[in-house]
Amino acid sequence: MKKILSLLFALSLVIHIGAQTKYVKKPAAKPVAKKTAVPKANPDLTKVNDSIPALIPQKKNGKFGFINQKGKVVIPHQYSNVGFYGEDCNLLNSKNEKVKKYGSDKYASVRLNGVDYRIDYTGKRVYKYQDSDLAKCPFEYKKQLYHAYNRQGYYGVIEDSRFENAEDYRHYQIYPQYEYLHIMEGDDLKHPMIIASYNNKFGVIDINNKVVIPFIYSDIKRNFSWKLARLFEVTTDGKNYFYVDDKNTAY
C-alpha cells in the first residue's frame, strides 16, 4: 500500500511540475532597432574652404554655370545670369507658405531665356519666380565706420568717429597713398575689406593696410561678392572675370 501511495505521489508531482513548465511565460523579444538610412554626401559639394560656398558661379562663352571648389563643372553653363547660393528675403517673407522654403540658402537664383528660377544643388529648377509671391525685404541700415579720404590726389582711410585734422597724419587710419580706394560692404564693420589701386594695378587691403590680395589685377568689381560669399571678383585682362578667396586662390 505504501508503495502505491508513493508511486501516486511521485506521479502527481511530475504532473504538477509539468503543468508549471507548460505555462511559463517566455521573455518578450527585444525590439529590433530600425536602421536609419543616412544620405550619402555629394562629393561634388565637398569643401576645401569652409568660408566660401560649395558651388561658385562661373562664366564661359557668355553663359553662366557653377563649379565646385575643385574647379569641376557641376551645373552646366546655360544661364544668362546667376547669383550665389544664398537666401532670398523676397521669398522668405512671402505670404505664400508653399514657396518660402525656396528662399533658403539651399537654392540659387538663375535666369534662363528671360525667366528667373531658383535651382537646387543638383541644378534642378524647383521654382519659377512669380510677382505675386514676392514680399518686401526688411531694410536694416548699418552706417560704415570708415570712409575713403582723398588728399592731394591720393586716397587713404579715415575713421569717422576720430578724424578731425587732415594735416595731422595721426588722424588717418591709412594715410593717403593709393590711386583709388573702395571699402567693400560686409558683415564686419570693424574689419572691412578695401579694394585699392597702386601703380595702376588692383588689390585688396585690410583696415590695417595689410595686403590681402596682391596688386596684380587690372580690375576688381565693387559688388556684394565679399558680403555674400567672401569672394572677390577679379580680372587680369579687363574682360574675363573670375573669383578668388582671401588667400588669392582662384575659382
Feature tags:
single chain, 251 residues, mainly beta, four-stranded antiparallel sheet, 3 helices, 34% strand, disordered N terminus
Strand share of the residues? 25-35%
Unreliable spans = 1-24
Biggest β-sheet strands, sense, barrel:
4 strands, antiparallel
How many β-strands, per DSSP? 17
Number of separate helices: 3
Give the structural class.
mainly beta
List SSEs in N-to-C order: HEEEEHEEEEEEEEEEEHEE
Strand arrangement, major sheet: 4-5-6-7
Q: Indicate the mean pLDDT.
A: 89
Query: Rg to the nearest angstrom?
Result: 34 Å
Roughly how much helix do the residues carry, as a percent range? Answer: 10-25%
Strand and helix layout:
Layout: H1 2-22, E1 55-60, E2 63-68, E3 73-79, E4 81-85, H2 89-92, E5 108-112, E6 115-119, E7 125-128, E8 146-151, E9 154-159, E10 174-178, E11 180-183, E12 194-198, E13 201-205, E14 211-217, E15 219-220, H3 225-229, E16 232-235, E17 241-244
Antiparallel strand pairs: 1-2, 2-3, 4-5, 5-6, 6-7, 8-9, 9-10, 11-12, 12-13, 13-14, 15-16, 16-17
